[in-house]
Amino acid sequence: MTETTSGSWPGALGDPVTAAALRAMHSTPAAPWSNDRLAAEAGVSRPTLARRFTTLVGRPPMAYLTWWRVILAATLLRDTKETLAAIASRVGYGSPYALSHAFEREFGTTPGRYRAHVNAGQGCDVVTSRRSATRPPHMPRS
User: Which residues lie closer than 8 Å to 28 by C-beta, 6 or more apart?
Assistant: First the structure.
């Protein structure tokens, strides 16, 4: 969920349909999710999932999945030395190009520039989402 969405986590997680879709995406983000598959996972029709999810989360299911995958990619770029190809595969993209395109569309910078920025000790503030006020996570290293 983002800072600019109309939804709220308590509402989204309190709704069994939305919660089932979120659990599915979060537990296996690299799976080949589609609206039909997420709706089946939640036990509802595709329009019902789309309506409830968008109302409660603030963006449609596949837009949320894209956002979640690039957040995961940003974390891996920051915390590992994995190649972009390996990260793309881990978060559900078929190629480094596909991940780069989604990352740049969402955050306005490339994965390589983002990694160089955080590796230079400059934090994550260089990356702001074009779609919302979200940023890749800046969490303490574990």
Answer: none
Tokens of 77: 């770029």
Look-up of token digits 């740049």: 104
| pTM of the complete model | 0.80
Q: Which residues have CB under 8 Å from 105's CB, separation 6+?
A: 130
User: Cα dist. 129→34, 87, 136 in Å?
Assistant: 23, 20, 8
CA 85, 103, 118: angle at the middle one, nearest 5? 85
Q: Give the chain's residues under pLDDT 50.
A: 1-5, 125-129, 132-142
Total count of residues recorded for the chain:
142
Residue 1 lies in a domain: no
Task: Domain count for the chain, please give it.
Answer: 2
Per the listing, tokens 């036990």 go with 43
Residues 138 and 86 in one domain: yes
Amino acid (one-letter) located at 33: W
Q: Is residue 64 part of a domain?
A: no
The region that residue 108 occupies, defined by phi over 0 for left and psi between -120 and 50 for alpha, beta otherwise, is: left
